[in-house]
Amino acid sequence: MSYNVHITRADDWAESVDNPITLEELIEYFNGKSDFEYSETFSTSAPVCMSIGGDFFIWTYGDIKVPFLYNNGQITVSHAKDKIIEKMKEIASEIDAMVQGDDGELY
Q: Each residue of 30-67: pLDDT tens digit?
């Protein structure tokens, strides 16, 4: 099972629908970021080929594409490493939100 890290405005990420970040505001926010692109699908080719539907803001970091999934008033990244968490904290500070792990810990 994957461990997720969330950008949320709620006291607990699981309650993000009660104090949501809206898709519209995120589209506007990320539109000004040259290292992000919006997509309604995210596809991988290695090690497994798959395509997932949703609202994704895909961060291009070097040769890596990191999907930031918008769902239920929050942004979620699975298996976020330190560099990704730093980017999440940067985003959160700019949109008046916070970064929180699945277990409720704040970053």
A: 999 999 999 999 988 777 788 999 999 999 999 999 99
Of 45, 44, 49, whose CA–CA distance to 78 is shortest?
Answer: 44
Calculate the CA 44 to chain-centre distance.
17
Tokens of 49: 């080929």
Provide the sign of the torsion angle of the four alpha carbons 10, 16, 17, 23, taken in this order: positive
Whether pTM exceeds 0.90: yes
Q: Please tell me the distance from the alpha carbon of residue 80 to that of residue 66, in angstroms, as a whole number.
A: 9
Q: How far apart are the C-alpha atoms of 53 and 35, rounded to whole Å?
A: 21
Q: Kindly tell me the number of DSSP H helices and DSSP E strands found in the chain.
A: 2, 6
DSSP code per residue over 41-86: EEEE-SSS-EEEEEEEEEEEETTEEEEEEEETTEEEEET--HHHHH
